[in-house]
């Protein structure tokens, strides 16, 4: 059973998947979810939701969890923090879920945190902002790399190339705002000076003014854009239209084929920090993530006839961490499951190798990021 709030088209698409699930028992283990399956962040939330349903269907087909079927109860917040707050209250108060996986964006996740902390229910976020887990919150975990890590990986690459003066262009949304703050903190650690700090709104449709200023600023050696959705693609098109030849870096907020589709030929040569999933086929056979990535890519693309997404991989890891924790706890008791998640060690996931602790509720390091370049409409591993 899949409870959700969708536009008609999205509802039909997801229900077609959920029909594959066997009938669920009355005492099913209930996993709650709120994702941005529609709206401006749908290219993130849609593969996340599809991934959760795909692997819960597989789990149930294999006998369920602790001898019970697993039920996904999902609501679509469409990227709206107020809707997210309402749906989380419903998951906690009405649906009585044992655990929540969700929060496509940093904004929707942050809206949920006070509620899950008060209810003392484990929550695994799929959003990137560092504020989600820093400072550590007892009941909150996350699977994506943080925006601070993304900035550090980019700064590391810039330093290797000898870039010491850059321009930063970030979105004023929760993800972009947090990414900007973290970049400003990280850059000096790598000897990099941000000589120009520009922003754009999440609904802006033209960024030529900011880019023209960047183009005319003396000394800029490279440009780093921090945002997600259509904004970074618009920036990339405007970049090409203005004939800017400076190296262009993007964050993991654009780590999907949707960005390449939106930006078109203008994306040629763009560098990004991203998970290894995008270059699965090019990984050496002895790469620790190779088997997991090959299997996830095959499962997802076979089921949905669409390219795999790193955002769906965040949901895969969130579900697997939850399943492993419930198995280890031997029950769905919130405290026992929370403790088991926090004790995760050596989990090889689609995003990276996870080692959590009471001081780290994400458990990833910089090896979870690779530097990729877009060439001829595809991804190429740089480092």
Q: What fold name stands as the CATH topology of the largest domain?
A: Rossmann fold
Work out the count of structural domains. Answer: 2
- Stretches with pLDDT under 50, minimum 5 residues: 1-25
Strand content: 15-25%
Can you summarize the main beta sheet? 7 strands, mixed
Percentage of residues assigned to helices: 40-55%
Overall geometry comes to globular
**What is the topology, as strand order, of the major beta sheet?**
7-6-8-9-10-13-14
Architecture overview:
The structure is a single chain. This protein is an alpha/beta fold and 383 residues long. It folds into two domains: 212 residues, Rossmann fold (3-Layer(aba) Sandwich); 128 residues, Rossmann fold (3-Layer(aba) Sandwich), CATH 3.40.50.2300. 41% of the residues lie in helices and 17% in strands. The protein starts with 7 loop residues before the first helix and ends with a strand.
């Amino acid at each position: 059973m899949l409870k959700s709030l969708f536009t008609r088209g999205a509802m039909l698409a997801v229900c077609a998947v959920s029909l594959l699930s066997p009938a669920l028992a009355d005492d099913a283990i209930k996993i709650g979810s709120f994702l941005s399956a529609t709206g401006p962040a749908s290219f993130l939330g849609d593969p996340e939701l599809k991934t959760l349903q795909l692997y819960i269907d597989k789990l149930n087909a294999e006998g369920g969890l602790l001898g019970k079927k697993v039920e996904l109860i999902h609501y679509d917040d469409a990227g709206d923090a107020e809707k997210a707050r309402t749906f989380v209250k419903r998951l906690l108060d009405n649906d009585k879920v044992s655990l929540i996986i969700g929060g496509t964006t940093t904004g929707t996740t942050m809206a949920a945190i006070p509620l899950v902390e008060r209810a003392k229910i484990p929550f695994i976020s799929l959003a990137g902002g560092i504020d989600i887990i820093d400072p550590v919150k007892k009941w909150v975990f996350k699977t994506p790399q943080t925006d601070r890590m993304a900035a550090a990986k980019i700064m590391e690459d810039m330093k290797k190339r000898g870039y010491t003066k850059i321009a930063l262009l970030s979105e004023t949304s929760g993800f972009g705002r947090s990414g900007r703050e973290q970049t400003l903190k990280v850059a000096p650690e790598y000897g990099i000076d941000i000589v120009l700090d520009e922003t754009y709104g999440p609904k802006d449709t033209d960024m030529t003014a900011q880019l023209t200023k960047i183009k005319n600023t003396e000394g800029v050696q490279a440009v780093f854009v921090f945002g997600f959705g259509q904004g970074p693609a618009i920036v990339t098109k405007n970049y090409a239209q203005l004939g800017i030849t400076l190296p262009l870096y993007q964050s993991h907020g654009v780590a999907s084929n949707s960005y390449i589709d939106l930006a078109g030929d203008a994306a040629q040569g763009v560098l990004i920090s991203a998970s290894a999933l995008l270059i699965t086929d090019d990984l050496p056979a002895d790469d620790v993530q190779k088997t997991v990535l090959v299997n996830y890519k095959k499962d997802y693309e076979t089921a949905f006839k669409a390219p795999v997404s790193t955002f769906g991989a965040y949901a895969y890891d969130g579900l697997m961490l939850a399943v492993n924790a419930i198995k280890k706890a031997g029950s769905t008791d919130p405290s026992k499951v929370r403790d088991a998640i926090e004790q995760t060690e050596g989990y090889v996931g689609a995003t990276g190798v996870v080692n959590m602790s009471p001081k780290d509720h994400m458990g990833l390091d910089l090896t979870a990021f690779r530097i990729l370049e877009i060439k001829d409409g595809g991804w190429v591993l740089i480092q």
